[in-house]
Design brief:
With about 230 residues, the protein is α+β, with helices and mostly antiparallel strands. The protein has one domain: Glutaredoxin (3-Layer(aba) Sandwich), CATH 3.40.30.10. Helix content is about 50%, strand content about 15%. It has eleven helices and eight strands. The strands form two sheets. The protein has a six-stranded mixed sheet. A hairpin with a 2-residue loop joins strand 2 and strand 3. The longest helix is centred in the C-terminal third of the chain and has 15 residues. The two termini are about 30 Å apart.
Length: about 230
Amino acid sequence: MSRKGWLIGGAVVVVIAVVVALIVVSVSGGDSSGKDPSASGVTGVADAIALTKGIPQSGFTIGKPGAPVTVREFIDPQCPVCKAATTKTLPAVINGPVKAGTAKLIIEPLTFIGPDSSDAALAIAAAARQDRAFIFSEILYANQGEENSGWVTDEVLTSFAQATPGLDVAVWETDRKDNALGDALFAVADRAQAAGATSTPTFIVQGPGGTEVITGAVEPDVVLDAIKAAS
C-alpha cells in the first residue's frame, strides 16, 4: 500500500506549514535504530551506474529534454514504497522509453514523513545542481534506513555523495546548506497539490495523448502502458 501523506483542500495551509517547518529545522545526528549505511558500506552503486549509463541527466530529470512524454514521480526520501518502486517499477521505465528517448523522468522530492525527509530532500536538490539528482536518489534508496530513526546524518549523506559518480562533493556540501534550495522544495509541494498527488510514490504521466495519475510501487507495465497512451 502507498503512504498517505498529503492533505488537500482545507488542510493545505497546515500542510504547507509542516513542510516549511521540516525544511527549516536543523537536525543533529543521533543513534539510529535503522540501517546505518556508514557502518555497513554504501550499496547499490554499481546498479545505479548501470541503470543510468548513457542517459542524459539534468537537474531532477533523467532522459532527453525533448522527449514527448514526461513522467513526474513525487517521492519522499524516507518512503519505503518509493524504495520499492526504484527496484520494481523504474528499471523497465528507464531501460525502455527513457533510454529510447520517448519519455523523460523527473523526480519530485517531498518532505512530509519527518525531519530526515527534509535533510535527504535537500541533499537530492544539491545533487540536482550538478545534474546528479536521480543517481544520488537511487543510491539513497538502496541504503534507506527506518523512518524517522535519525539515519539521515551528515556522515551518511556525504557517503552517498562520495559514491555518486561525477559529483563534486565539496560543491555539493556547500550547495546543500544553501537556503535557496528550500524554494525548490516549496515548489515541489505546490506541484504535488496541483497535480493531486495524495501519496508517495505518485507518477504523473503526461504527453500529447493525455495525462494519467498512478500511485504506488506498481508493476512496470502500468507506467509503460500510460506512457504509450500519452505519446
